[in-house]
């Protein structure tokens, strides 16, 4: 290809404008506003074809493949020799679109492909067998694809061939077959009715489908398609107009044929093409466009043929491709110069470089005048370049252009083509300082011309006197402002003058009537003046009260009457906040020059359209006051890189509504083309896109298909179901969504046109993100079923729990009732036991006392019977009590250390008399070395006693009962009771442990055996309570039964040396413990009587028992009687007895509570207490002893035992009292460092008294009364307590303590007087007397 430096310049991104000399009447021809080259992504600079598809994409054929263009990027399709789905070759020589929207592609190799632009699938048409078997050398553009898929091919010099691929046949139409008027074919086309039209050298023909024949219409004049070598291989364009006319052109004329009327007409061409009109295109307004030698012409029946544009480089006059797209943009494909675009809706920006200065260059070029000469400021002066900042211009009511510079003001006279000057303005500019002078000119509504100079002088021109008149001296403004002024511009109203300043002094308003000045600044009037640095001013084109002002902080709209402003900035869409210049055009728009381009602003609707260097401007940055409006309406603006001039009236409103098309899709950041199920080309045909749940990060790329200025398009999108509002992405055509949740969405994409108006065409795409299998409908059904199941199970659980709760509550109520019943029963048994024990005590004790006094055998026998049956009754009572405890779970194991062998030996002796009475041999077999064990003697006694009692009872006379005890070492002991009694039938064995079960007694003729029926039940439960085992067997041995009870008890073996022999305290007879013997009792009570009889408080609710006990003790003691604990407490506090005997079960206050209160009261806590009760269990004894009882005696008891326990406690008290009396009264007791320690081991109460005395030791007024008060006791109570504890009075305690402390002080060196006062004696003589009585020496002698 021919690539020259000038071509490289043409194909650059920079817009290239050619200067056209303005002659005052000729209209400038549109120039390309944009050139697309390989630098923009075009695959090759030779452009051979254009097609715009149904979606709006433009397809471009080059010598390096086919490119789809969306205004932003190219998507190129090239040949791949290994892929038959690609185009046949990369050399494209022509392209066309058929009525089915398919794109036909002709290759330089003679092949033809058909591409579906929707799915981008390519069919190699010439590779089909029909054509492959009958190939034909193609004439360039000499082919046609019709709506049925047939291909019509020009056979050079021999008519046309029709390849019918469906019927697999070829039809030949030629002059010889009388189908054509000539065999040289120049053009083919298919009309809207799907008729094929053919143009040859002499006629226009159409194909009659019914007759399968062409019908010809002769052209009445010769057609000129030029004559040169191979000219018969050149094709021209055949086109159907919207009116139905068939249109084509040879080298001389446009020819129109009307099929409806059968008439022909023509229009001469303004210039001759090389062969003819190659392509005719219809614009959006319905007019036709065609191209000749690089120039573009437009035809309409009203206006005829007019040139609208041209390619600016004549070296590339050939234009192989031509297109007018839907927006009216003209596309020209060049030979090695890329794509040229002509926009008929945008004015031509003719850009120039500076020669001298902005206004000088514009006026010189456009008006053929020199401002330098007019103003007297030589353009070759060094500072003349700055004159562009100083020129001011305006128009009068007659539409004349007025220009002011330095001290000259004049208007342009179109008739003479000269500037007519007014008289010079005096005293504002000198030749030595030419930049000084005019800073603003303005016509008031009354026609008066006003000026302001840089220093602030305001003048107006008196037309009648033809002179300048000073209206206001600069000193007035300086005085108002308070500083020198730098004026910028002036605007004259009918009654006010508005002046802008440049040095931060804001806006000045001068009243024309009274010359009063109003000064507005941002500081003084922030609501009116948003910026102090103001620039030029322009009246609103349609609203006379409004004034527009430029500033460095936006475009300011001032209401001159209300003095209210509104500011437009970048927030409102302006390209920049600096407004250098403001001009108005005939359409009422404001044109603003800024730092970022030229802006077209509608003062009412505020619509904004910005033009940049891409649109033909010399640069984006402009200068202050570099503006000029020419008399013909054109506008000129100057910037830092040159100046531009254009006709704003050539600007057409952009009403085009561009389509939006998808250009790419990325799924999880991977192009959709890499997904087998999606092709990017198919996106625009898809109505719905369905993706799996894990392909939910999407980036849709799209483009608005308006190509005249793609960078001005704005975009917005909205994903319904995800976004609430439109998301405006400005000029970034990408809609991104990350991690879309499963669901159904509707994607809506919209584009604006170049003026920012949103298109009515919205691209829609339904989008479905499938739910993962765990979120699918069937999964939800499964979840629902599971939840329903869980709910059902949970409801069942709740129901069961509620039912169970009710059952538990019922059982708890029942258990509570049973427990209450058990409690009542236990209490009943306890009470009944107590009630039984009390009379038993009154039976056994008198019987025992009578025995020594009655010596007759008969009397002894009856007394023994009384004692034996009373003991039997006591055992039954104990069993009933144990049974109730077993049922309530209150029976505990109380281990003691001893020899179980000795224990059973003693127990067995109690059954000897009964066995001998029946002649039964009672045998004990035990290991000789049983040793000591930890066991519960009460439980063991009950087990063995019940078994032995039953064995003796059911064994006949002369029988044998054997008790065996064996040691099993660490495993415990083995116990066996064997008898030769009546035996137990096998069928009765399972029931013998049932409570109250009694077997028949064959000895008594089958009657029920005597007894309660609870003995064996207690045995079984006692064994199980101790974790033992019980087994019974009753075999027949010969003629006799043998019943054996075998028991193993897991008693713990005692350590060696823990106890040499079993304690005799375990031996019981008849349920009464024998700890003492009568002999010992006699010994205790035959001693010398005490000096004073002891006082005993007896608390017992049974008067008979109380009387019996009182009689038993009255010989040696004084008895005080109380019937309950409350009464006993009063008696104890009042009388302070030496000992208390109290029952436990009593009304009002029981014995335990009574005992606790006594032991907590300091007045009585020294009194020993013996509890008498029928509650004989270990726990009961522990409870009583735990609250302070000194001894515990169970009913029934031996009176001798009671007397002995009372005597022992009183003796102990006496010994303690003597010991304390000795320590307190003995002067020989060693003096301790702290006398309090002298009795610290004896009695806490005495220690407390000593502590109180020590604190008041030197207090002479501290006596017994004060001491009693300190311990919260009465003097009497204190006397009794101290007397009981020590045998001496409290006064003696006080005196003796002071004397012992005095002895200590004397030893420390104090004299007698000092010691007396330190120890609380108010008289030294009395101290000496007391000291001598106690120590038997005087204090001085003691010291």
From TrEMBL:
Enzyme class: transferase
SMART domains from the UniProt entry: HATPase_c, HisKA, HTH_ARAC, REC
EC number, UniProt record: 2.7.13.3
Keyword presence, Phosphoprotein: yes
Positions of the Histidine kinase domain: 831-1053
Coiled-coil annotated spans: 794-821
CDD domains noted in UniProt: HATPase, HisKA, REC_OmpR
Name assigned to this protein: histidine kinase
Native organism: Dyadobacter arcticus
């Amino acid at each position: 290809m021919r690539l020259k430096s000038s071509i490289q310049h043409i194909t650059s991104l920079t817009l290239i404008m050619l200067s056209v000399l303005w002659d005052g009447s000729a209209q400038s021809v549109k120039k390309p506003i944009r050139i697309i080259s390989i630098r923009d992504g075009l695959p090759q600079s030779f452009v051979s074809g254009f097609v715009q598809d149904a979606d709006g994409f433009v397809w471009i054929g080059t010598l390096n493949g086919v490119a789809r263009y969306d205004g932003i990027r190219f998507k190129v399709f090239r040949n791949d020799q290994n892929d038959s789905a690609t185009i046949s070759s990369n050399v494209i020589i022509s392209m066309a679109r058929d009525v089915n929207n398919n794109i036909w592609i002709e290759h330089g190799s003679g092949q033809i492909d058909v591409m579906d632009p929707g799915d981008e699938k390519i069919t190699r048409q010439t590779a089909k067998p029909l054509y492959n078997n009958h190939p034909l050398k193609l004439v360039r553009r000499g082919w046609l694809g019709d709506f049925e898929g047939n291909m019509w091919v020009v056979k050079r010099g021999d008519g046309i061939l029709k390849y019918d691929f469906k019927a697999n046949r070829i039809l030949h139409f030629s002059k010889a077959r009388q189908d054509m008027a000539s065999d040289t074919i120049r053009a083919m086309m298919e009309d809207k009715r799907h008729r094929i039209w053919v143009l040859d050298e002499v006629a226009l023909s159409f194909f009659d489908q019914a007759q399968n024949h062409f019908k010809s219409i002769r052209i009445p004049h010769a057609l000129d398609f030029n004559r040169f070598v191979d000219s018969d291989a050149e094709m021209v364009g055949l086109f159907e107009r919207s009116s139905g006319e068939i249109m084509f052109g040879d080298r001389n004329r446009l020819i129109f044929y009307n099929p409806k009327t059968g008439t022909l007409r023509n229009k001469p061409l303004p210039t001759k093409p090389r062969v003819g009109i190659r392509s005719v295109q219809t614009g959006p307004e319905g007019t036709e466009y065609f191209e000749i030698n690089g120039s573009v012409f437009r035809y309409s029946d009203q206006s005829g043929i007019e040139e609208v544009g041209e390619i600016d480089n004549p070296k590339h006059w050939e234009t192989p491709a031509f297109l007018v797209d839907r927006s009216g943009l003209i596309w020209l494909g060049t030979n090695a110069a890329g794509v040229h675009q002509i926009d008929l809706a945008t004015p031509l920006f003719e850009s120039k470089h500076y020669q001298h200065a902005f206004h000088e260059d514009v006026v010189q070029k456009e008006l053929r005048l020199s401002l330098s000469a007019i103003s007297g400021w030589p353009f070759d002066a060094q500072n003349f370049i700055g004159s562009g900042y100083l020129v001011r211009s305006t128009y009068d009511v007659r539409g004349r252009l007025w220009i002011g510079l330095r001290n000259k003001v004049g208007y342009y006279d179109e008739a003479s083509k000269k500037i007519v000057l007014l008289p010079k303005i005096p005293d504002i500019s000198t030749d030595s300082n030419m930049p000084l002078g005019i800073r603003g000119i303005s016509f008031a509504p009354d026609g008066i011309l006003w000026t302001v100079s840089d220093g602030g002088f305001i003048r107006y021109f008196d037309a009648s006197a033809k002179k300048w008149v000073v209206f206001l001296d600069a000193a007035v403004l300086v005085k108002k402002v308070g500083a020198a002024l730098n004026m910028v511009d002036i605007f004259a109203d009918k009654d006010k003058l508005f002046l802008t300043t440049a040095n931060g002094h804001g806006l000045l308003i001068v009243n024309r009537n009274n010359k009063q000045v109003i000064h507005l600044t941002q500081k003084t009037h922030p609501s009116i003046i948003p910026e102090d640095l103001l620039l030029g001013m322009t009246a609103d084109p349609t609203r006379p009260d409004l004034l527009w002002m430029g500033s460095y902080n936006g475009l300011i709209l001032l209401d001159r009457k209300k003095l209210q402003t509104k500011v437009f900035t970048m927030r409102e869409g302006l390209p920049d906040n600096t407004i250098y210049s403001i001009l108005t055009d005939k359409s009422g728009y404001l044109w603003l020059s800024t730092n970022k381009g030229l802006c077209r602003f509608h003062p009412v609707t505020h619509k904004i359209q910005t033009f940049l260097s891409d649109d033909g401007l010399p640069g984006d940055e402009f200068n202050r006051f570099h503006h000029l409006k020419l008399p013909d309406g054109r506008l000129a603006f100057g910037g830092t890189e040159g100046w531009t001039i254009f006709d704003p009236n050539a600007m057409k409103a952009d009403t085009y509504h561009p389509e939006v098309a998808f250009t790419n899709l990325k799924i999880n950041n991977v192009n959709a083309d890499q997904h087998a199920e999606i092709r990017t080309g198919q996106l625009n045909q898809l109505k719905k896109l369905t993706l799996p749940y894990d392909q939910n990060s999407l980036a849709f790329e799209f483009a608005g298909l308006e190509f005249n200025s793609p960078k001005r398009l704005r975009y917005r999108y909205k994903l319904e179901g995800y976004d609430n509002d439109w998301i405006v992405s400005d000029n970034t055509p990408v809609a991104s969504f990350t991690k879309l949740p499963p669901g159904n969405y509707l994607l809506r994409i919209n584009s604006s046109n170049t003026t920012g108006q949103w298109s009515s065409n919205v691209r829609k795409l339904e989008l479905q993100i499938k739910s993962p299998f765990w979120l699918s409908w069937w999964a939800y059904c499964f979840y629902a079923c599971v939840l329903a199941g869980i709910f059902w199970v949970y409801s069942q659980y709740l129901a069961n729990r509620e039912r169970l709760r009710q059952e538990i509550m019922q059982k708890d109520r029942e258990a509570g009732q049973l427990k209450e019943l058990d409690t009542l029963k236990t209490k009943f048994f306890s009470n009944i036991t107590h009630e039984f024990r009390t009379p038993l005590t009154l039976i056994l004790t008198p019987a025992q006392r009578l025995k020594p006094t009655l010596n007759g055998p008969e009397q002894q026998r009856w007394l023994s019977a009384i004692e034996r049956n009373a003991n039997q009754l006591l055992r039954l009572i104990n069993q009933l009590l144990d049974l109730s405890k077993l049922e309530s779970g209150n029976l505990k194991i109380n281990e003691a250390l001893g020899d179980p062998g000795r224990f059973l030996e003693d127990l067995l002796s109690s059954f000897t008399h009964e066995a001998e009475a029946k002649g039964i041999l009672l045998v004990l077999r035990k290991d000789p070395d049983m040793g000591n064990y930890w066991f519960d003697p009460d439980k063991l006694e009950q087990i063995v006693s019940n078994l032995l009692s039953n064995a003796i009872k059911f064994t006949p006379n002369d029988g044998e009962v054997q008790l065996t005890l064996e040691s099993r070492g660490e495993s415990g002991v083995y116990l066996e009771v064997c008898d030769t009694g009546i035996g137990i039938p096998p069928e009765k064995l399972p029931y013998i442990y049932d409570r109250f079960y009694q077997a028949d007694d064959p000895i008594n003729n089958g009657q029920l055996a005597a007894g309660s029926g609870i003995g064996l039940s207690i045995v079984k439960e006692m064994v199980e309570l101790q974790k033992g085992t019980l087994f019974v067997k009753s075999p027949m041995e010969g003629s006799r039964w043998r019943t054996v009870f075998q028991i193993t008890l897991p008693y713990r073996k005692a350590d060696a040396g823990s106890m040499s022999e079993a304690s005799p305290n375990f031996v019981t007879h008849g349920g009464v413990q024998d700890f003492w013997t009568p002999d010992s009792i006699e010994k205790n009570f035959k001693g010398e009587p005490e000096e004073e009889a002891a006082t005993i408080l007896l608390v017992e609710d049974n008067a008979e028992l109380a009387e019996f006990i009182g009689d038993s003790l009255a010989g040696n003691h004084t008895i005080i009687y109380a019937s309950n604990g409350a009464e006993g407490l009063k008696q104890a506090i009042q009388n302070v007895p030496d000992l208390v005997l109290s029952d436990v079960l009593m009304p009002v206050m029981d014995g335990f509570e009574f005992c606790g209160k006594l032991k907590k009261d300091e007045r009585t806590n020294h009194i020993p207490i013996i509890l008498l009760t029928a509650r004989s269990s270990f726990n009961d004894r522990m409870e009583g002893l735990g609250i302070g009882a000194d001894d515990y005696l169970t009913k029934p008891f031996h009176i001798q035992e009671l007397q002995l326990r009372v005597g022992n406690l009183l003796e102990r008290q006496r010994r303690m009292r003597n010991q304390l009396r000795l320590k307190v009264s003995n002067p020989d007791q060693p003096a301790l460092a702290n006398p309090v320690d002298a009795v610290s081991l004896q009695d806490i109460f005495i220690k407390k008294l000593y502590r109180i005395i020590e604190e008041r030791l030197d207090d002479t007024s501290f006596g017994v009364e004060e001491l009693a008060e300190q311990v919260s006791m009465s003097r009497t109570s204190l006397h009794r307590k101290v007397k009981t504890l020590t045998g001496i009075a409290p006064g003696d305690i006080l005196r003796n303590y002071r004397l012992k402390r005095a002895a200590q002080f004397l030893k420390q060196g104090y004299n007698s007087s000092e010691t007396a006062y330190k120890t609380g004696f108010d008289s030294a003589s009395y101290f000496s007397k007391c000291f001598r009585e106690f120590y038997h020496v005087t204090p001085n002698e003691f010291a």
